[in-house]
Specification:
The protein contains nine helices and eight strands. It is an alpha/beta fold and about 240 residues long. It binds cytidine-5'-diphosphate. Cytidine-5'-diphosphate (CDP) binds next to helix 2, helix 4 and helix 8.
Length: about 240
């Protein structure tokens, strides 16, 4: 990857990465953390989801790596502050289409890991993510942020939980949105996505060597947030 160089005044302590498997609680943690610190919250999964949604809309096969790579290089994805109070943390747009909820559809879940396994797709997306990250004061969430996109980040979290617990959380979220799904289906689809994400050749899901690993099985969001805020504040003190 041809990474843009970090600017000189760059402070790695102001870049926080949160990686981990599906529904491990990354997005909620990142959102709360960013709010508490006055940082930008950026969820990179949205970009892969938006691209997958567009491919499905345009009838492009998820096997068509070449067309998907070309699409990734030009797709105008916009993430903006929430325009509606319907539980969204941000709006996601492609052109004038609000696709905030469409990208959460089970069909996108089923194909996003295949689309995001293509090296050209990852290159296009990672470059944009890195540019945003290097502006600093950011909490960036994904699968490869601490390992590939922003390896110089000062604080790297790897958030995990058992597949059953994660499927239970995702199932509850989907039910709350009025979607008719079975728990077993959610578990199945999530396991498959985890499998593809962690075995792909480029930027597989894995903790960075210097990541702090947190198991959220028996912790609620408040407990995880408290733990991470403690880490952030003690690192700031150490570096004074
Ligand atoms: O919210 P959830 O954890 O279910 O998924 P997400 O973060 O929205 O990511 C959806 C999919 O995009 C993942 O399963 C990965 O295949 C892909 N992804 C990736 O490859 N790299 C990232 N940095 C973020 C997401």
């Amino acid at each position: 990857m041809t990474n843009p160089k970090a600017p000189q005044e760059f402070d790695p302590r102001e870049i926080i990465t949160i990686d981990g498997p599906a529904a491990s609680g990354k997005s909620t943690l990142a959102q709360r953390l960013a709010e508490a610190l006055g940082y930008l919250y950026f969820d990179t999964g949205v970009m892969y989801r938006a691209l997958t949604w567009l491919a499905l809309q345009q009838g492009i096969s998820v096997e068509d790596e070449e067309t998907l790579t070309a699409l990734a290089e030009k797709v105008p994805i916009e993430v903006t502050p929430p325009s509606k109070r319907d539980g969204r943390a941000y709006d996601v747009w492609i052109g004038d289409q609000d696709i905030t909820w469409a990208i959460r559809h089970p069909q996108v879940d089923a194909y996003v890991s295949i689309v995001s396994s293509y090296p050209g797709v990852r290159r296009a997306m990672s470059l944009q993510q890195r540019r945003i990250g290097l502006r600093g004061k950011v909490v960036m969430v994904g699968r490869d942020i601490g390992t590939v996109v922003l390896p110089e980040a000062g604080i790297k979290i790897y958030l995990d939980a058992s597949p059953e617990e994660r499927a239970r959380r995702r199932f509850k979220e989907m039910q709350a949105r009025g979607e008719h799904v079975e728990y077993e289906e959610v578990l199945q689809s999530m396991r498959e996505r985890d499998r593809i994400d962690s075995t792909r050749t480029v930027a597989p899901l894995r903790p960075a060597a210097d990541a702090i690993r947190i198991d959220s099985n028996d912790k609620d969001i408040e407990q995880v947030l408290e733990l991470v805020l403690h880490i952030v504040h003690s690192q700031k003190r150490e570096n004074l």
